[in-house]
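Predict the 3D structure for this chain.
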Amino acid sequence: MSLPAPVVTGIAFLVALGVLVFVHELGHFAVAKRLGVKVLRFSIGFGPILFARRRGETEYAISAMPLGGYVKMLGEEDSEEEQAEVELQPERAFSTQRLGRRSAIVFAGPAMNFLFAFVAYLALFVAVGAEHPSDQPRVGGVSQGSPAERGGLVAGDRVLEVDGTAIATWEQLAKTVRDSNGATLHLVVDREGTRVPLNVTPELRPAPNLYGEETEEAYLIGIAASQDWERVGPLEAVPLAAKQTVSASLVVVQGLALMVQGRVPLKELGGPIAIASAAGQQARAGARYFVSLLAFLSINLGILNLLPIPALDGGHLALFGIEAVLGRPLRRRHREIAQQVGILLLLSLMVFVFYNDINRLVRG
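Done. Predicted structure below.
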């Protein structure tokens, strides 16, 4: 008996959020522990504590607001009780650590997000099918009315030669077409075991990027790459997982840059409702799709946390950078102002993405 779609969506969202927050905070926690810093609390969620259990010197908690989490370390608050403990155990406090150690603890959260994404992609390539898209110059689709259709190319054709030059990869085929300057290309394709000669004349057309922007024109023939799949072994999977992690990171960074430039509308930003919807869809599609989404969301979380906004890890690292330049920490009042500005920015962003989510629901 299958669960109703809303139930699957709710479970998938909670699992995704819990895993991503846990992974991020585990990075801070593990490095702090490794460096001897006393961790007072490891919490999934913010606000009132719903459940807590103490093991050793650390309290492990689940809190009411699930949109995040935190690792509370000795020396992060200015209460009299905590400052008294810092005086008793200065070597265990976060605030008394050398700059490099504090930076390592803060950076460990985003770093763990990237590591998780790498492991998730590795699991996809090894445990969940061990497959990746083929780079063969095989036609997966032909656009209607395109030069390829007029020239006789059909889905399934594998391009063997262009103007007498052997073609081994899709990238080589694409570069040959783009560098043609519109000259007619003489192709030889393998069609179900038969060599078929064809003539195709590329046309200058808008070339949209990953975000749909038609930033330039290029010579194209109107074909899409085949979605054939090839088996890979565990050793091959490691560089593939690393490449996929880097590629996904570049996609996120490019997307942020385009939003800052105003070339991608801010209405494309999604919040918890959009994440829940995507998680539900991918969970219903299958485990490999859900794991792939988790990896991509983890990369998003890692990169967003590295932005130099106070209250985020990147903001703390930026303040540490200023401290390194000045040779001393910023004054407490300045740090408090920066923290307040950062929280205001984050709250404003949260309201905005919730508005986008609700607007999408209203528009269907």
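The CA atoms of residues 44 and 69 lie 4 Å apart.
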